[in-house]
């Protein structure tokens, strides 16, 4: 065979059996990246129907459901004495009371990275005295942990008026579950045992003109908690000098630093 013909034949064999097909094989063997779509309820407030206990309005972040391994902070939002987050027929609505209002059909809902659960005290036996039941709330948190992608070390409770009482009660009796509290518009229930929560991040807020808030009682806590043996310098107190009285909590929760604080608290691991 002529030398040039032999070289041409060898080149053809090399190209068809060797590197000439490698790129196609690599394309076929490379795994394709799998992308998940968000949960159908992501980015909006919907109903969490819990049947025989507190039903709740729940907000899931806009990317919820895209990553099964991702856990989110939980903010438990507790309404006050006459507040509501559900309509009389059990659908979400009501007065949209509490922190959840900040992510309820608002621009913040597009990027706020926390799950927000706002139970409604009606219609349960507790609605007769309109005070939250500690055991029911503890059960709700535990059920939420089992149901949703929640980071168990990043659970914060915020509430105003009777919701403030419940937040403080959870701090005293269920500190094992929570990473911080933000109680507003009610007196310092924790002052009776302030050293029991000396290592818990607390941000209390209210108006000096609010007789239910009793600013002096919180000022006393601010002073006393610093003498507790495990105090971690994580107590904040905001006393607003305005004429709002027992109101204006939405203005507090609308602050960007407040919204950041709620998602940044984390229990020591």
Say which CATH homologous superfamily of the domain at 40-187 and 249-263 is assigned: Alpha/Beta hydrolase fold, catalytic domain
**Oligomerization category of the chains in this entry:** single chain
Approximate strand percentage: 15-25%
CATH class group of the domain at 40-187 and 249-263: Alpha Beta
Major sheet summary line: 8 strands, mixed
Question: Could you tell me the radius of gyration in angstroms?
Answer: 27 Å
CATH architecture of the domain at 40-187 and 249-263: 3-Layer(aba) Sandwich
Helix content: 25-40%
Helix run count: 7
Integer average pLDDT: 88
Stretches where pLDDT falls below 50 for ≥5 residues?
Answer: 2-16, 18-34
- Helix/strand-derived category reads alpha/beta
Overview of the structural elements:
The protein is an alpha/beta fold and about 270 residues long. It has a domain at about 40-185 and about 250-265: Rossmann fold. Helices cover about 25% and strands about 20% of the residues. The chain is built from seven helices and eight strands, in the order H-H-E-E-E-E-H-E-H-E-E-H-E-H-H. The protein has helices at about 5-15, 20-30, 135-145, 160-175, 215-225, 250-255, 255-265, and strands at about 45-50, 55-60, 70-80, 115-120, 150-160, 180-185, 200-205, 235-240. An eight-stranded mixed β-sheet has the order 1-2-4-3-5-6-7-8, with helices on both faces. It starts with a helix and ends in a 5-residue tail after the last helix. The relative contact order is 0.12.
